Each structure stands twice: as structure tokens, then as C-alpha cells.
Amino acid sequence: MAAVTLQDVAVRAGVSQATASRVLNGSSRIPGEGVADRVRTAARELGYVPNAQAQALARASTGLLGLIVHDIADPYFSSIARGVQAAARTARKQVLLASTERDYDIERESVSTFIAHRADAIVLAGSRQSGHLDRDLEAEFGRYQDNGGRVVVIGQPLAFGSAVEPENHSASGELANALVAAGHTQFAIIGGPGSIRTAVDRRNGFVEALGRCGLTPLVEVSGDFTRDGGFSAARRLAAALQLHPDAGGPPTCVFAVTDVMAIGAIAAWRGLGLQVPRDVCIAGFDDIPTLRDHTPSLSTVALPLEQIGARAIELALCSDIDGLRERVAGQVVLRDSTKLP
Amino acid sequence: MAAVTLQDVAVRAGVSQATASRVLNGSSRIPGEGVADRVRTAARELGYVPNAQAQALARASTGLLGLIVHDIADPYFSSIARGVQAAARTARKQVLLASTERDYDIERESVSTFIAHRADAIVLAGSRQSGHLDRDLEAEFGRYQDNGGRVVVIGQPLAFGSAVEPENHSASGELANALVAAGHTQFAIIGGPGSIRTAVDRRNGFVEALGRCGLTPLVEVSGDFTRDGGFSAARRLAAALQLHPDAGGPPTCVFAVTDVMAIGAIAAWRGLGLQVPRDVCIAGFDDIPTLRDHTPSLSTVALPLEQIGARAIELALCSDIDGLRERVAGQVVLRDSTKLP
DNA sequence: CTGAAAGCGCTTACAG
DNA sequence: CTGAAAGCGCTTACAG
Predict the structure, then answer these.
(1) Which positions fall inside the HTH lacI-type domain (chains A, B) (predicted)?
(2) Residue B246 is part of a domain; what is its CATH number?
């Protein structure tokens, strides 16, 4: 019933536990080849699998990395998770995953549990209320870091830890400029929750760039950071702008702060008989891989999501620099959804 | 530097370590309220976080669940992962995630590592070579189960452990029937890797049902279980069938064994000037959420992916039944991509 | 109800 | 190079 133990291996090989340990786990002290062989053989014959929990306790390092996302089924986060996985593997670490369903209580719990499991580092993906972090959470993170834990945040710098930050503000500014350069003159916005930093930055970057061109959005609506959030916001927008199929005239260009919301918006409009880009244009943000084959193809700001995830792990693992903010550029990609006749 | 220890809490509360342990972790032996309060206060003041590694060692249970998927960025797997997460949370377990990039060496490594971490259960999602499992892997799993570890497989029953199996064969048969009933008379297949059980079952279920209707696929091609696999297979198919835009006549109806491949196929055909469903029809399998807004909307077999993930965890956690095979039905959904004029 | 003590499975100075 | 022993931070019979 009980798993094979290092002691079992040592006995069978006729050596001490210490020696078995040194053979099986690349210690600097290398035992003689004859002994080493006996130990390895014994381990193989017995099917020995080291107990990582015991190792962690003895070594004071678990080799565990905690990743917290809002929703693992959201392609934005699953792409980041893929990058995290890849980087973790090359660093020979394991990843503990938590998907919070955008519930802050669950998030707090997850952080506590990861700390309890003594994860070497915790990566928080998915931004929250700007700057604000739960008091308890903050205290816990503080102690965690004092004990050598590393924290890295994606997209929402905290007062502590390191961060990988997409350049939301400037990139959506560039998107606005590109759209204006393409001939668009009327704009509207589908924003995200006002409490979420990423949503606010993207909206502001876009609107401010428009302003520098002497333009102002005709309407702004907002919704959740989800497909359904985009869908319902788009209906309100259509009403506000009195959008009609085949109304003629230059279509208004809408900026949705995420691709997923943009997709929901297009679906909503289609339900109203409106065609993109003929009746209304739209651009998103993120460049979600699964959406590359969408029709019409979506103008957006491409973010290297996998790289972002991988980079977060790398920051978490190089212990020398703390408090680092690493900025990641986005790339404007104009496709059919903003094409003017 | 070192984290606060149970001993620290005990000292501050003026009790023994045993008592502190009993207060902080719902033991059946409940200490007096006065004492309990002192302990809790001390723990709070010190910011005590129990060391899960030490607890695991002492309790011989880690509260860890291992999930292994082919690719966490693939919506099929991320949906399953979401269900796994949800079920794990209600069971108060943590999930260890591995994304293998469809590399069997990585998969073997992940299994070993999960076993080393003494995960209470391991869920393998994503089918592999039918029936075949690496010899070493099998031996390792055997010992793991002997030691009380549970293994659950999604979509590919092994010789051991439990399984959650989508009814691939019968569901694709129903899809074929529905398509025939809808008036389709000419069929073709885009299959997956011949070594993968899921791909084979879906293909066979479809072809056999066609056979019962007195029909045979005109052509079969195959590719990887990915968007690109579907893309390139679709080009070969177009050549084989000599598909031309606006050729007239009833369009051939293609069955792609996954939605993701179907999307790739549609993109490939669009590049050739072919329109779905006018020039060629297509149905997929899975009903990926992110693809619900695709144009044309995709006929498919809907699988309750999240439920499947959740169910796998439940099976893993109810220790009484082993070797259980739980079948999950798929539901045929006909949409625009197979619509006849 | 409470405590002293053994034990979970490893690692790692410290001696030899 | 190798081993005896302490220690990592908890839990849990076993006494009291």
C-alpha cells in the first residue's frame, strides 16, 4: 500500500539513506560508481518515486508555481497559460492553476492556498480594480515576499512584485491613429468594467488619440469583459446611434476593448440585420488565435499572449530583480472589420 | 525570513503544538473555547499560514489533483479544464496542470512528476494511440494506484482507472443520420490522426451510419487535430473533389472530426473562393464555445465539455468505484454550415 | 480537554 | 566517499 521509500531503496542497495539520496538526486557529492549503480538499480527495481512533498520540506523549495486567471476557458487566459506552461517546463517547475471565475473571494482563497503550498512564485493574470488590492491580500503577499516568495502580475502593476504590462494605452492610441489614417471619421466605444485597469487604459488611449486628431466618440457604452458583455453593449450602442441596415453613408467605427467583446458585438448586430463593415465597423484588442478565422476578419491590436505568460515566469524565476515592470508592445492589425468601401 | 510556524503560534498562545494544530485544523477533538480563541488570535497576529507540504507529509494526502491536457490553449481542453477547476474547488482541492503540446515524452514526465508530488488523483484528457500505453507509464500508473492514487481518463478508456467517455461513435452516427434526413446525399470526411481513438471512433460512427443509409463517402482525407490540420486536409479534399466556386448542383457535405478542424477547413475553402454552405457543406464535432459566433454557424455535435471535466474529478474523488466507464451523450446541432438551398 | 513524543520521507551539515 | 543524526513543519495515536 505505502509507496516505496528512499529507505527501502537504501536497504536493498546496502547503503545508507544519505548515500541513496545523494545518488538519486544530483548532489554535488558524487558517490562511487559501483555504489551509485547499485542504488540506481535498486530504485528501478523497486519503482521508487521520490516524494516531492518530503523533498520540499527538507529543501525549503517546492518547485511549484501558482497561476491565477479569471477564466481558463477564456482564450485570452488560456493562451497566457500555454506560455506559462512552456516556461515552467523548461525551468522544471510545476504549475498550480486557479481559475477564479472573476470572483474576488475565490481569488483570495487561491492566493492563500498557493502560499500554503509554498509555491516559489505566484503569477496573477487578469487585472482588477486599478491599484486597489484587498487589505488582507496585500498583507499576505507582503509576508509571502518576505519569506522569499515572488509575485508577478500581468497587466496591472501592484505596489509590489514585478509586472508584465501590455502597452494598452499607447497601443490603442496607435489603433485609433491607424483607423483615422484609413479614413474613419466617426467613432464609438464599447468599454469594459470601469473598475478594471486594462479596460480603462485601452479606452483612454483610444479616446485621447482621437482627441489629438480633433475627434470625439459619438457614444460610449460598456459591458463585462466577455462575449455576452460585448453583445449587450452593442445592442445599446445600436439603439443610441440609431443604426439601420443599409442606411448608407460612412459607417461608424466602434472600438471594443477586447476581441471577445467585439465578437459578441458583431453577433448582436448581425441579429439586427446590420453588416460589418458595411453598416458599422469594429476593431478589438488582443488578437485571440481562435478568432483568426472569424468572418469578417477582425481589426485588432495583436498581443503576444504566450510570450507574455512565459515572460512572467521568467521574471518570477530570476530572483535578482524585483519590482521590475516589463512592457510588452502591441501591434496594430487592420483587417476586414474596419474596411471602408 | 522563515515563515511563521505552528510552533510559533503555539508559543505565543501558551499552548502545545498539538493543541494549536487541533484548533487551526478542524480536528474532531475540539479544545475549549478560551484556548481556541487564544490560538486563533495568535495565528492571526502572526499571519500564520499552514505549510501544506508538511501537512501532506503528516497526513499522507496532498489535496492535489493532476490534470494533463494536450494543449491548454485549445478551446476543447480549456473548457474541460474549466470544469475540472470548478469541481476541484468545491472539493477543496488544488489542480496541478500540465499541457503536453501533444508530446508523449512530456506526458510521461508530467505523470511522473504528478506522482512524485503525490497527487491524490490524475486526470488524463486527450486520447492517444488506441489502447496502447507506454510500458513504463503503465507500470508507474499501476504502482500509483496500488498506493491509493486514482486515475481517470477522458475519452480513451485504459486497461485501468476510470473513464469519462463521450459517445463519439454513436453521436457521429446520429449526425450522419440527421444530415441524410436533411437531404444530403454526397459526403466526404476530414479525419484525424489514425492513431487517435477519438478520431477513429468519430470517423467510423459517421461512415457506418452512412453505410446503413446505403451511402459511402466520396473521399477521405485527414490531418492533425488542429486548425491547421483541418486547413491543409481541406485543400487536399477540394482538389480531390474538384470543387469549384458556384459549380451548381448539390454541395458535398464534409464531416470534420473536430470543430477546430472544420474552422480551418472553411478558412481554406474561403481562400479558394468556395463558399459554405453554397459550394460545400461541413459539420464538426465538440461545439466549441468560442466558435458559436462563427459565420457560417457550424453544424456539430455538442459535447458538455465543462461537465465532462467536472465529472472526471468527481469520479476521481469517489473512491468506492474503480474501473467505472461513464458515457456522456453528444447532441446533434444542425446550423447554417450544412444548410441546403 | 491537553501535552509529550513519535513519525511522515526526505536533505544536509558534521564527522569519520 | 560514506554514514549517523538532526531537522524541515505538521498530525495523531497514546497517556494523563
Answers:
(1) 4-59
(2) 3.40.50.2300
Answer whether residue B1 is part of any domain: no
Domain tally, chain B: 3
Please tell me if residue A94 touches chain B, with a CB cutoff of 8 Å: yes
Q: Is B46 on the interface with A (CB under 8 A)?
A: no
Same domain as B310, residue B162 = yes
In 3D, which of B68, B328, B67 has the Cα closest to residue B198? B328
Q: For B93, name the nearest residue in chain A, comparing CA atoms only.
A: A113
Closest partner CB to A57 (pick from B54, B71, B306): B54
Q: Are residues A97 and A162 in the same domain?
A: yes
Same domain, residue pair B162 and B172: no
Q: Is the pLDDT of residue A273 over 80?
A: yes
Distance of residue B227 Cα from the nearest chain A Cα, in angstroms: 9
Distance B22 CA to D11 C1' (A): 9
By C-alpha distance, the chain B residue nearest A110 is: B94
Nearest CA to A76 out of A228, A260, A232, A229 is that of A260
Q: Does the residue A1 lie in any domain?
A: no
d(CA A330, CA B7): 50
| A184 within some domain | yes
pLDDT confidence band for B61 (50 / 70 / 90): confident
Whole-number pLDDT of residue A135? 77
Q: Where are the alpha helices (DSSP H) in A126-278?
A: 135-146, 168-181, 197-212, 227-241, 259-271
**pLDDT for B1:** 43
Task: For residue B127, give its domain range.
Answer: 64-166+306-328
Chain C positions with a protein C-beta closer than 7 Å? 1-5, 7-13
Q: Which residues contact B166 (CB under 8 A, 6 or more apart)?
A: B155, B198, B303, B308, B327, B328, B330
The radius of gyration computed from the CA coordinates of chain B, to the nearest angstrom, equals 26
Average pLDDT over all residues of chain A: 91
A182 touches chain B (CB under 8 A): no
d(CA B27, CA A311): 42
Nearest residue of A to residue B142 by CA position?
A47
CB A22 within 7 Å, strand D: yes
Q: Are A9 and A24 in contact (CB under 8 A)?
A: yes
pLDDT, tens digit (0-9, with 9 covering 90-100), for B128-153: 664 566 777 888 898 999 888 999 99
Q: What is the pLDDT of residues A285-331, one digit of tens each?
A: 999 999 999 999 999 999 999 999 999 999 999 866 677 889 999 99
> In this structure, what C-alpha cell is assigned to residue A243?
443604426
Contact B94 A98 (CB under 8 A): yes
Kindly state whether residues B245 and B181 are assigned to the same domain.
yes
- State the nearest Cα–Cα gap between A51 and chain B, in angstroms: 5
Q: What is the band of B175 on the pLDDT scale with cuts at 50, 70, 90?
A: very high
Residues packed against strand C, CB within 7 Å: A 2-3, 5-7, 17-18, 21-22, 24-25, 27, 50-51, 54-55, 57-59; B 15-19, 22, 29-32, 34-36, 54, 57-58, 60
Residue A131 has pLDDT above 60, yes or no: no
Query: B59, B86, B104: which is the final residue of a domain?
Result: B59
Run of H or E including A276? none
Query: Has residue A25 been placed in a domain?
Result: yes
